[in-house]
Amino acid sequence: MDTLTPQDCSKRMARVRGKDTKPELTVRRVVHRLGYRYRLHGKELPGKPDLVFRSRRKVIFVHGCFWHRHEGCPLARLPKSRQDFWVPKLEGNRLRDARLQEEIMADGWRVLVVWECELKDREALARRLEAYLGPRKWRGRDEGG
Fold first, then answer.
1. pTM for the full predicted model
2. Spatial separation of the C-alpha atoms in residues 103 and 106, rounded to whole Å
3. Considering only CA atoms, which of 15, 127, 110, 130 is closest in space to residue 55?
């Protein structure tokens, strides 16, 4: 049985953001602090990736563990009520994500998914992002020049 009234549930669901989520903003800050520059929500790419690095042909999706079904993650637990609604909804999200990532890779792009639960260890996240993105391209004069 739901603990929320339909009106309360509707209000709660209306607050769920599709863009500029806290996990996404966290990843953006780490990427920027590392010295990389990016574009947001590439409209020309399938799934509108959260961060787009055009010159590198790389994208980053920042996924919430619950909404995108992070396998084996405690944050990806199923709700106890209305499973007839939630199971197909969340499984559909997972299948759509896989399809969109395949489409992007078929166009010659590389894809990285950062999960919400991975944001706890910022140092590990920074190392993973640097390994994925590769050497930074500095603008302007070289040091010592």
1. 0.81
2. 5
3. 110
Q: Give residue 135's identity as a one-letter amino acid code.
A: P
Please report the pLDDT score of residue 51 as a whole number: 96
Coil vs helix vs strand at 54: helix
Q: All domains of the chain, ordered by start, with CATH? A: 19-133 (3.40.960.10)
**Contact assessment for residue 53 and residue 130, using Cβ atoms and an 8 Å cutoff:** no
Give the other-Cβ count within 10 Å of 108's Cβ.
7
For residue range 86-105, list pLDDT tens digits in order: 889 999 999 999 999 999 99
Tokens of 36: 């990389």
Burial class (CB in 10 A: 0-12, 13-18, 19+), 114: buried
